[in-house]
Write a structure and sequence with these properties.
By secondary structure, the protein is of the alpha/beta class. It has a single domain, classed as Isochorismatase-like (Rossmann fold). It is 32% helix and 21% strand. Strands 5-4-3-6-7-8 form a six-stranded parallel sheet, sandwiched between helices. Strands 1-2 form a two-stranded antiparallel sheet. Helix 6 runs parallel beside helix 7.
């Protein structure tokens, strides 16, 4: 049974090519889960940067992580973390999303508290197991900036990263490009990421399918891993 991925939104059999085959070595793979913390996912009206579509994928993300762990992949949970002083953002040059995005969604009460270190918004909504690692310190849109994620992945000898989390058209897209530029193979799990809305989510997935690596459904990815382990 052939493996499948998406190309510009169309699910099709993965080409029989060694270049694609190299993406599916689970022993050299880490799942990087981005910003699945309460600062995005809390139902509390004080949530400083709500990403409500992300709540719907929590169970799917946990399930994919469980299956990946069982097959030998490493799991990394990345979260945005800003100094409580505000010097990383609102007291210096603010993140650009605080302008256009906040205006588009009609304003966000308490947005200045987003990602502040030591607050309850830093708690993960997805499950973190003792074998997992946490990378904090993400201060802009990429999980690589300015964190030690790349250092950790190199220490493990990782060649492929699998992306889950939020938001597809923002932090996932930026992380995928940075990972590709750093010469990692990138797989974005289509049903384990969530974006601003259907339109932007679809656009981001199409962009990634053309420019950063593979876009696959979680079940297709796990089946591909399992067939090679067998």
């Amino acid at each position: 049974m052939p493996d499948h991925s998406y190309l510009y939104g169309v699910r099709r059999p993965l080409p029989d090519d060694s270049a694609y085959e190299r993406y599916l070595d689970v022993s050299r793979t880490a799942v990087v889960s981005v910003d699945m913390h309460e600062g995005h996912l809390s139902e509390d009206p004080d949530c400083p940067c709500p990403a409500p579509r992300g709540r719907a994928i929590v169970d799917k993300v946990d399930d994919l992580h469980d299956r990946a762990r069982a097959l030998g992949a490493r799991i990394v949970h990345v979260r945005s973390t800003l100094r409580a002083s505000g010097e990383d953002d609102v007291k210096g040059i603010p993140s650009a999303w605080r302008l256009g995005f906040v205006e588009y969604v009609g304003g966000i009460p308490g947005v200045e508290d987003h990602a502040l270190a030591g607050t309850r918004w830093q708690e993960f909504r997805t499950r973190v197991e003792p074998s997992d690692e946490i990378v904090s310190g993400k201060k802009r849109l990429s999980a690589f900036y300015p964190t030690d994620l790349d250092f950790l992945l190199r220490q493990w000898g990782i060649q492929t990263i699998v992306l889950t989390g939020a938001m597809t058209d923002c932090c996932i897209l930026n992380t995928a490009f940075d990972a590709s530029n750093l010469n990692y193979r990138v797989i974005t799990v289509r049903d384990c990421v969530a974006g601003t809305n259907d339109e932007l989510e679809d656009a981001a997935l199409k962009i990634m399918s053309l420019n950063t690596g593979l876009v696959m459904d979680g079940d297709d990815l796990v089946s591909a891993w399992e067939s090679r382990r067998a």
